[in-house]
Structure formats: C-alpha cells, structure tokens
Automatic annotation (TrEMBL):
Entries under Gene3D superfamilies matching the protein: Acid Proteases
UniProt GO MF annotations: aspartic-type endopeptidase activity
PROSITE patterns registered for this protein in UniProt: ASP_PROTEASE (PS00141), PEPTIDASE_A1 (PS51767)
Protein name as annotated: Aspartic peptidase domain-containing protein
Signal peptide from the UniProt entry: 1-23
Record key words, sorted: Aspartyl protease, Disulfide bond, Hydrolase, Protease, Signal
GO biological process, one term: proteolysis
Biased segments, Basic and acidic residues type: 41-53
Classification via CDD domains: pepsin_like
Disulphide-bridged cysteine pairs: C403-C439
UniProt keyword Cell membrane, yes or no: no
Biased composition (Low complexity): 105-120
Domain Peptidase A1: 156-477
Source organism of this protein record: Cercophora newfieldiana
C-alpha cells in the first residue's frame, strides 16, 4: 500500500520550481508586419499521418514527451455548456481546488482576477447591444445554464494509460485548472455517448493501484466533481511514470471526460507532484514547460509537447509574454496563466492593414485557457467586434454571426507586449460553428463588472504557445503548420528564446 509518507518521498525528489519573477523580459525580436510574414502555408500543411511516428521519435530523442491531441466537437444539450467556463465574484467560480491536496490550508481561493482600470476602447458604438441578456441573474449567467443554452463546444483531448495492465483514459487538457481527475459520472454528464467513449479507470482492475484517500472536490463554471485520491502507474506517450497521484471521481455533473489540469501545481495549489512535476523529477524533461499547438480548425493536427517545442509550427522567434500579475502576487493556492493583452483589432478580408480598436495604453489581463471553447473579454470590445461581423445578440446575450464569415480571408488580431507580438486568428479559427448554420463570435462578453477575462480556444488556434513554469512566461508566436521537428527546452532558463521557428 502506498501511504501518504511514501508520496512525500516523491516530493523530495522534485526539482523545485523557479519562483523568480518576471520583470519585463528582454525585448524579443520584433515580429514582422503581417504582410511580410510567409504566406500561411496552406499548400504545405503538414499531414498528420507523417507526424506522429512521434512515439518512436520520442524514444530516440529523450528530453521531451510528445502527445497527439484530438479535437471533439459536441453539441449542446439545452442546459449545459463547457464553453462558458467561469464567471467572477464569489460563489461557483472557476476550479476551486481540492480540499485534499492543498498545502497551507488556504480554503477560499476564488482565483481572483487582476483588477484593471477601464481604459482605452477607441470607438464608441452607436446602438450597442451590450447589456442584452443582462436581465438574467448573476447566478444564471455565471453558471451559463439558461444563459448559453445549447452551445456545446470543442474539447481537446489526450489519451493516458493508467494502471497494470493499462486502462485507456481520455482527458481534456485544461490550462485553467491544476489537477488530474478521471471517471465522470456519465448519466449526469452532458453527453452520455461521449462520456462512455472516454473510458473509465477501475482501481480494482489494476495491480498497481493504491488508495491515497482525501477528499477531492472541484467546482468548474459548468460542472462539479467529487471523489478521492488514488495513485497508480501512468503512461504518457511511451513513457512510464511509476506513481502518479490523481483523483477518481465518484460523483460529477455536466462533465463528460476526466480533466488534466496543467496549471501551476506543486508546491502551490497541491502538496503532491503533478504529472508535469513528475516528468521533471524523473528526468524525462528538463523543466516544467509544455507547448500547445491546437492548429487550425479542420487541419486535423493538434499536439502537446512536454519539455519541447516544435520548430515547424511558427516563424522566427517566440516572444516571451510575462505572466502578470507575477506569480508571487497571485493567490498561492491558485496561480494562473494570466497575461496582458495590449491590443485588439480586426483585419477585414483583403484589407492591407488591420483596424485596431484599443488605445495605446490599453491592457486587459486574460487567462489563457485551453479548457474554454470560447473567449470572454470586455463587453464594450465584444460589441465593437460584433458590429464588424454584423452580429446579432440573441435573447441569452450571445453574439451570433453568419457562418459564411468563416470562409472569408480575414483575421481577428490580438496584440501583446505593446506591438511586439500580434496573433492574427483566422476567421475560420475564431468563429465557433456549433453546428452547420449556427455560428458564434469567438469572443463573448465577460460578466458585467467582472475582470475574469479568458482567451480560450478561439484565440489559441491562432497561436503557438509555450507555457513556461521555469521562467513564468508564455512564449508565443503566430501558428503555422509547415513540417515537424521537436527540440527539447528547459536545460537552461529561458533557452526557448533561441529556438527559431522554421516556417
Ligand atoms: C445540435 O443541436 C441543434 C439544436 O438543438 C440541432 O439542430 C442539430 O441537429 C444538432 N446537431 C447534431 C449533430 O446533433
Ligand atoms: C499588465 O497591465 C497592468 C495594467 O493593467 C500593468 O500595471 C502591468 O505592468 C502590465 N504587466 C506587464 C508585464 O506588462
Ligand atoms: C495482476 O494480478 C492478477 C491476480 O493477482 C494476475 O493474475 C495478473 O497476471 C496480474 N496482471 C499483471 C499484468 O501483472
Ligand atoms: C446515475 O448512476 C448512478 C450509479 O451509476 C445512480 O446511483 C444514479 O441514480 C443515476 N442517476 C440518474 C439520474 O440516473
Ligand atoms: C470494481 O469496481 C467496480 C466499480 O467500483 C465494480 O462495479 C466492480 O464490480 C468491481 N470489480 C471487481 C472485480 O471487484
Ligand atoms: C450533482 O447534482 C446533484 C443533483 O443536483 C447533487 O445532489 C450532487 O451533489 C451534484 N454533484 C456534485 C459533485 O456537485
Ligand atoms: C463518494 O465517496 C465519498 C467518500 O470518499 C463518500 O462520502 C460519498 O458518499 C461518495 N459519493 C457517492 C455519490 O457515492
Ligand atoms: C480533416 O478531416 C476531415 C474529416 O475527417 C476532412 O474532411 C478534412 O479534409 C481533413 N483536413 C485536412 C487538412 O486533412
Ligand atoms: C447585416 O444584417 C442585417 C440584418 O440581419 C442585414 O439586413 C444586412 O444586409 C447585413 N449586412 C451585411 C453587410 O451583411
């Protein structure tokens, strides 16, 4: 039996995470203006079947662990939405963390959003629809039940093998939370079919499972989970991690697969090592760093690389965007990937220059969250963007747009580090098609008065992102897909800056 004290010996093996923070990073190379970029190489889109011979490749090249990510579109069920991730304020906010895992006993961790001065939208919008839908109670809006009727969403999922013999489990990758849990209760999930396909883990069918105990409880914006902790062997890609602690749920609502939280974990929010921590302590990777390339909608290629960067998914160098507020100033029980957005705009089809809707001094701290189908930003800014797409606001306050926009060659543009990095998200990647003929703007208004802004998948599809818990930055550049070569990173702090994208 594995006891708590056995687990603690694993803690001692851990390399401690670097907590030095983040003065503004050295200035990275300036990104070329949009029209100097190499053309988005649609004609040389890298084919997935060429790609993930990755298992064999990872074996030859230690230092990173690479995993394919699959994309699942699911329909709304009338009373549920994964996409409405979380709202602000007290009450059911984002993942509240587990009571069992946290050091220091910090019990209330609503994961407070940074406060932002209200500055800088350039254009006032006549006849703006902001506020429509606001007649709903705050609680309903936060939970998104009556608010985002029938939205459905897109889930990005990886496969893990747990136990001896291995049991195949599929889990969401979620940079907005920090623990791994498995076994959603399917008959109260959003989708019985999807849930049943995602595998269940039975501790009693594994020779290596060990009961750890403790109470696990998380409240997400769109669901809740309870359970207790177990530990078992886990395989990620072809690597084997001997003793991974995770939660096995015995009750959950509105979730249809387990979730792999990839936020800051040990020693902040939990007192046991996360998978990322264990990969470091087992010398599978050099530092707690992982890259996410969700890729364009319809490209059929998404991947996550622990400890490595795929050079053939961007051009030029990656820009370091500091996590802000610095992690030393965030609630230690729930440190999150907040970064400042410094401009927002739209490049219309065939236009040579993008329009920018924000002022020179604009900042908007946003959580980068792979677990959120849509993005949630300032309502006034959503209204400005909505007008460009001739959006209509439905009774629930959603910005609905014509699906034909997805086929037009424009982009929605998010700037970072004051002009040093601009991510141009193609309309096709930005506009979420729930089902044929029903499309929504990729940004929706955050709760009135809330500063819990989120950049979800409708932003992330346009970017190549490297989440770096060693240096507390998110490295970023425009996503391209022009080939395939992974290099490991994290041997020295900030060595990601030297990796030149090959596209
Ligand atoms: C998704 O839901 C909408 C509205 O309820 C329905 O019209 C559509 O047929 C559904 N699509 C699928 C693929 O189930
Ligand atoms: C982020 O924006 C805030 C203002 O909202 C500013 O005080 C802070 O310095 C910015 N952080 C970085 C790293 O740019
Ligand atoms: C697991 O244990 C059972 C019963 O002890 C044994 O029959 C089986 O071979 C073991 N399986 C593995 C993969 O070790
Ligand atoms: C769901 O299944 C559990 C056991 O698997 C059962 O206890 C519960 O009553 C079921 N709930 C519904 C709503 O069917
Ligand atoms: C294993 O556990 C599951 C669920 O807890 C139970 O339904 C099943 O009967 C158990 N199997 C064995 C062999 O004990
Ligand atoms: C799920 O919903 C049921 C019914 O509302 C509730 O009794 C149960 O506590 C909920 N489960 C969780 C994990 O919140
Ligand atoms: C889940 O397990 C806990 C103990 O770990 C127990 O108190 C609770 O009743 C269980 N809930 C369900 C729905 O089985
Ligand atoms: C992606 O897959 C879909 C359906 O399987 C297919 O229609 C489409 O052509 C694929 N796209 C690419 C770029 O391979
Ligand atoms: C905008 O929408 C209105 C009403 O839906 C429609 O009459 C108008 O033609 C649309 N304009 C454009 C440019 O698509």
């Amino acid at each position: 039996m594995l006891s708590i004290s056995t687990i603690l010996t694993y803690l001692q093996l851990l390399l401690l995470l670097t907590t030095t923070c983040a003065a503004l990073p050295p200035i990275g190379p300036r990104r070329a203006p949009a029209d100097d970029l190499p053309p988005n190489p649609r004609d040389r889109v890298f084919r997935p079947d060429e790609a993930l011979s990755g298992r064999a490749e990872a074996a030859r090249r230690p230092g990173y662990v690479r995993m394919p990510v699959s994309r699942h579109l699911f329909n709304g069920t009338g009373k549920w939405s994964w996409g409405w991730h979380w709202g602000g304020g007290p009450g059911p906010g984002g993942p509240k963390g587990s009571s069992g895992g946290r050091p220091g006993g910090s019990s209330s961790s609503a994961g407070a959003a940074p406060t932002v001065p209200a500055v800088g939208i350039r254009e006032a919008v006549p006849g703006t629809e902001v506020g429509k839908g606001m007649e709903l109670s705050a609680e309903d809006r936060r939970w998104g039940w009556s608010y985002l009727t029938d939205i459905g969403g897109i889930a990005y999922i990886i496969e893990l093998e747990i136990g001896t013999p291995p049991q195949l489990i599929k889990v969401f990758i979620d940079t907005g939370s920090y623990e791994l849990w498995v076994n959603p209760r399917c008959n109260t999930s959003a989708s019985l079919e999807i849930c049943k396909n995602h595998g269940n883990y039975y501790p009693n069918r594994s020779n290596s499972s060990m009961y750890v105990g403790g109470d696990f409880a998380v409240t997400y914006g769109t669901g809740a989970v309870k359970g207790s902790y177990w530990s078992d062997v886990m395989s990620v890609s072809m690597f084997r991690i001997p003793s991974v602690q995770f939660a096995v749920a015995n009750d959950s609502n509105y979730t249809f697969s387990g979730i792999l939280g990839l936020g800051y974990a040990y020693p902040y929010s939990i007192n046991y090592p996360s998978i990322l921590n264990l990969m470091v302590s087992q010398n599978m990777i050099s530092a707690p760093i992982f890259s996410v390339g969700l890729g364009g909608d319809g490209d059929n290629f998404s991947e996550i690389i622990f400890g490595g960067v795929n050079r053939w998914k961007f051009a030029g160098y990656l820009e370091p965007i500091p996590i802000w507020p610095p992690i030393s100033q965030q609630d230690p029980a729930w440190i999150q990937y907040w970064i400042n957005v410094t401009s927002v705009g739209v490049t219309k089809p065939y236009a040579s220059n993008g329009e920018v809707y924000t002022s020179e001094t604009f900042t908007m701290p946003c959580l980068i969250d792979t677990g959120s189908t849509l993005s949630y930003i300032r309502p006034d800014l959503v209204a400005v963007i909505g007008e460009k797409f001739n959006a209509t606001v439905d009774n629930a306050g959603n910005y609905i747009v014509d699906c034909s926009w997805r086929d037009k060659p424009g982009t929605v543009d998010f700037g970072f580090n004051r002009g040093r990095m601009l991510i141009n998200v193609r309309y096709k990647d930005f506009i979420f098609q729930q089902y044929p003929g029903h499309c929504m703007l990729g940004v929706q208004p955050a709760d009135a008065g809330s500063t819990n802004y989120v950049l979800g998948d409708t932003f992330i599809r346009g970017a190549y992102l490297v989440f770096d818990q060693q240096s507390d930055v998110i490295w970023m550049n425009q996503y391209y897909n022009c080939g395939d070569q992974v290099v490991s990173v994290g041997q020295t702090a900030r060595d990601t800056q030297y990796i030149k994208g090959a596209c």
